[in-house]
Specification:
Layout: H1 3-19, H2 40-45, H3 54-65, H4 71-74, H5 98-103, H6 106-115, E1 116-117, E2 120-124, H7 134-149, H8 153-157, H9 160-164, H10 170-174, H11 176-183
Antiparallel strand pairs: 1-2
Bound molecules: heme C (HEC).
Heme C binds near residues 104, 119 and 140.
Length: about 200
């Protein structure tokens, strides 16, 4: 075989091998609310138990990397790629995605950290399990939101009012009416079952 052809052939094999690697399981739709319909209005209305400052975000980072062990799945930089995330389906949330902050209120996130995700038993209720306090859950969520919000403190606070004002995204256009209803705080018409 000519040298050029050999390189071409082995490159082909390498590329084929790369594509046959098991695909990393993805995150589950950000537009699917995690809080059950009968509790979502209350969850959205929850507010941080403190004024959110850079100091709170720093405390949240400590919880994320310490007592909460959140980094093991959500990754040291919050991209959802921690060592514990391998093979997890649905995958841990990527907190650097600004769109996630635009569709999810901080209260809904705290609800999940308190009670766990109904869609992924690996995301346990860290507060109800007694691993962290309610205050620490808020701190960790403020830190997580800062990863996708940057210095925009309204985005970090993630109130229902702020979320409702965010532009509707490309993906949400496909499911425009249920999302609009959900963002408006109405009962969620999206079903919570895994597909
Ligand atoms: C054992 C792995 C694991 C650990 C540890 C973990 N998470 Fe998660 N987390 C997940 C997975 C998987 C999801 C995706 C669940 C889903 O799609 O509903 C998730 C989702 C979330 C969400 C997003 C829920 C939503 O509304 O979509 C929040 C907020 C969250 N985690 C916060 C935390 C915090 C805070 C900690 C630490 C106190 C933590 N997680 C620790 C696996 C983990």
């Amino acid at each position: 075989m000519q040298r050029g052809r050999w390189i071409q052939a082995s490159l082909g094999v390498t590329i084929a091998a790369l594509f046959s690697l098991p695909a990393q399981a993805g995150e589950l739709d950000i537009l699917k609310p995690r809080v059950p319909a009968d509790q979502i209005a209350a969850a959205k209305a929850m507010k941080p138990p403190f004024p959110v400052t850079a100091d709170i975000i720093a405390k949240g980072k400590e919880v994320f990397n310490g007592a909460g062990t959140c980094y093991t799945c959500h990754g040291a930089t919050g991209k959802g790629d921690g060592p514990g995330a391998a093979g997890m389906d649905p995958a841990p949330r990527n907190f650097t995605n600004h769109k996630f902050d635009q569709v999810r209120t901080a209260g809904e996130m705290v609800w999940v950290v308190t009670n766990g995700s109904p869609l992924q038993p690996a995301m346990v209720g860290f507060v109800s399990a007694g691993q962290i306090t309610d205050k620490q859950a808020w701190e960790a969520v403020m830190y997580e939101r800062s990863l996708g919000c940057g210095g925009d403190m309204d985005c970090v606070n993630g109130s229902a009012d702020w979320v409702a004002k965010q532009p509707v995204h490309e993906e949400s256009a496909k499911t425009a009416s249920p999302v609009a209803a959900t963002l408006a705080g109405g009962p969620s018409p999206l079903d919570l079952s895994l597909h």
